[in-house]
Amino acid sequence: MEQFWLNLKYALLGLFQGLTEPIPVSSSGHLIIAQNLFGLHIEGLSFEVLVNFASLLAVLLIYREDIIRLGKNSWAYLIRREEAARSDFMFIVYLVLATIPAGVVGFLFNDMISETFKGMTTVGVTLLLTGVALWLIRNLRGRKSDAQLKAKDALLIGLAQAVALIPGISRSGATIVAALGLGLKQSTALRFSFLMYIPISIGGMILETKELVRDPELASRALPYTLAFIFSFVATYYALRWFMGIMERGNLKYFSWYCFAAGTLVLIFLT
User: Fold this and answer.
1) Is the dihedral of CA 208, 209, 210, 216 positive or negative?
2) Higher confidence at residue 57 or residue 210?
3) Which of 38, 122, 146, 225 has the most CB atoms within 10 Å of its CB?
């Protein structure tokens, strides 16, 4: 019976990760909240990297056509100098540029960030900050398309992603807020945000592979980890599909309200 409850808790952790990864409410913050509520203390980042990898696979599945198109057109521009393919090539260049800030910060300060900002007080405060940011851009309707992205836009969105390494700051929320604030269309902001997620997630997986393999609980918790992975993948897929529709209608204010409520409850009852 004890094993059953452990499996259920890990499955729910994967579900929370999957549901909150695509939407602007901070998946890392919700994992910390869920672990606190379930009485779990998971050492290191191997579990978080594992469920994030499941979310990555869901994102790759949803954006597979965009990824294939970007790859083909970039090749066409580089090899055959097809001018019509230049905007897709530059989109990839800007994705790489936007990945650099979070990559550098994560590589140099990941352990410090995870140790310093892991408390419930941090999560409560940063959820409130996420709510404020979402509220400020709730009515923005940008006009910049993929072809109108600039290096400055990419770097600023990348800096927002670096800030989101702090638990409770939503990665998708921070990058979408930055993108909309810079005048990008909602569709472009969403696409750029989640295509940015791909290299940063792969990088995190590579950096933490040794820790995952050496995790002393990996063998004994193979089934709970597997359940968390599956639930994270499925939940991310459907949550992202749902969020794409939300972005089209511009209803980000509801996520702002949620962050205000969640942050307040965390500060009152869990700190």
Assistant:
1) positive
2) 57
3) 225
The confidence score (pLDDT) of residue 44 equals 63
Does residue 42 sit in helix, strand or coil?
A: coil
CA 153 to chain centre: 19
Tokens of residue 44, six digits:
């290191």
Token pair of 247 as six digits: 């972005």
Going by C-alpha positions, the residue among 62, 74, 202 that lies closest to residue 146 is 74
More confident residue, 200 or 211: 200
Q: What's the CA gap between 3 and 30, in Å, rounded?
A: 23
Please check whether residue 34 is in contact with residue 13, taking contact to mean a CB–CB distance below 8 angstroms: yes
CA distances from 65 to 62, 70, 247 (A): 8, 9, 19
Residue 22 Cα distances to 43, 172, 211, angstroms: 24, 6, 25
Burial class (CB in 10 A: 0-12, 13-18, 19+), 130: buried
Q: Report d(CA 52, CA 18) in Å as an integer.
A: 8
> For residue 150, what are its two tokens?
């600039």
Distance, CA of 6 to CA of 245 (rounded, Å) = 35
Domain map (residue ranges) of the chain: 2-269
Q: How confident is the model at residue 16 (pLDDT cuts 50, 70, 90)?
A: very high
Distance CA 234, CA 214 (A): 27
Write down the pTM of the prediction. Answer: 0.91
Q: Which residues contact 97 (CB under 8 A, 6 or more apart)?
A: 151, 154, 155, 158
Of the listed ranges 8-22, 35-49, 118-132, 256-270, the least confidently predicted one is 35-49
